[in-house]
Design a protein that fits this description.
The protein contains 9 helices and 15 strands. Strand 2 and strand 3 form a beta hairpin. By secondary structure, it is an alpha/beta fold. The strands form 4 sheets. The chain has a 5-stranded mixed beta sheet with strand order 3-2-1-4-5. A 5-stranded mixed beta sheet has the order 8-7-6-9-10. Helix 3 crosses helix 9. It folds into 2 domains: 114 residues, 2-Layer Sandwich (Nucleotidyltransferase, domain 5); 145 residues, Nucleotidyltransferase, domain 5.
């Protein structure tokens, strides 16, 4: 039996799942669309991973969760480590690319920059408000241009004279793009202009005031876009490295943390692959015990509440069962 460690990164647009072996090498990975159903997509992913490792002798001995739905994911799976995206993306980048000093991460709904020096995070910034610096901006414009998003990057590289598009706001950018179409600009030039606009917006907002030093690693779903990578290299005047597993780097970091947490505890709280068949229910209510009126989220299975979170005072979280009520799994 060989130990494996599962990392799950559930975001608003996509979900990345990774299995690492004892040497911390990736043995299986998945990149799925969340579709607004984080529990369902995690269960679907578990079934696929179980099939992938069947007969290999691998046993999951630790689970880590990250992403915007990390608390929910941790309850469903029985995670040993639940950490924020900054920690997990930084850890994954240093694991895959030793010596990295700057991490550029762009997802479907948010973007972030992480600065590392000697393997330690010294600064970071996130953008979760404006869509102009995220993948959803490109998806929307690709639909308007009738260009498959998968071809967006390669089309940008065909441009001979990229147009300049206002990128500070997605609304203004769209208006500017339409104007460029009306004056006869080619589609490749417009696509390249949109890539430049996204990068310019990212650097002027998320990267403002940050000392961007090589090695620069670009990760997140948007890293698949060759046009965005080229735009970053042009703007930064330095090479930008895209790792092989760019889309699931959050999961890689979560899996590494899972190993550390499980080994420290001597047990894992992973509930097993059978959780993919359980019927989980998510609900919420407004607590009126104080003027904060917090929205408290419940997660239950078979009408039994496993955990609650969302209150500022921590009262509801303290009522959940110890380590989410699961029986620990021995590591040996």
């Amino acid at each position: 039996m060989e130990k494996a460690y599962l990392g799950v990164d559930v975001g608003s647009v996509s979900t990345g799942m990774v299995l690492l072996d004892e040497q911390m090498d990736i043995v299986a990975d998945l990149y799925l669309r969340t579709r607004g159903q984080p529990i369902k997509v995690v269960q679907e992913g578990l079934k696929i991973l179980e099939e992938k490792i069947r007969g290999t002798g691998l046993k999951v001995c630790g689970v880590g969760a990250t992403g915007s739905a990390r608390t929910l994911t941790g309850v469903v799976l029985g995670a040993d480590a639940v950490k924020n995206e900054i920690t997990c993306h930084a850890l994954a980048a240093t694991h895959i690319v030793p010596g990295v000093q700057t991490v550029l991460e762009i997802g479907g709904q948010d973007s972030k920059i992480i600065l590392l020096r000697d393997g330690v995070v010294v600064d970071f910034a996130m953008n979760t408000v404006c869509a102009a610096g995220t993948g959803s901006f490109l998806d929307h414009q690709a639909v308007r241009l009738n260009v498959p998003i998968e071809e967006f990057g390669s089309m940008a590289l065909q441009s001979q004279n990229p147009v300049r598009i206002a990128g500070r706001c997605s609304v203004f950018a769209e208006s500017d793009m339409i104007h460029k179409q009306q004056v006869g600009a080619s589609i490749p030039d417009i696509v390249a202009g949109l890539c430049d606009a996204l990068v310019r917006n990212y650097l002027n907002n998320v990267g403002k005031g940050k000392e961007i030093l090589p090695i620069v690693v670009f990760q997140g779903g948007v890293a698949a876009n060759l046009g965005i990578r080229a735009a970053f290299e042009k703007a930064l005047e330095m090479p930008v490295f895209v790792p092989e597993y760019y889309g699931v780097m959050g999961g890689v970091g979560a899996a590494i943390l899972a190993r550390s947490a499980a080994e420290s505890a001597g047990t894992s709280c992973f509930k097993g692959f059978e959780v993919s068949d359980l019927a989980y229910q998510a609900s919420s209510f407004e607590c009126r015990d104080c003027p904060n009126c917090c929205e408290v989220v419940n997660i239950a299975v078979e009408e039994k509440v496993l955990a609650r979170w969302g209150g500022r005072c921590g009262k509801w979280e303290n009522l959940q069962e110890n380590r989410m009520g699961q029986q620990p799994v021995k590591l040996n």
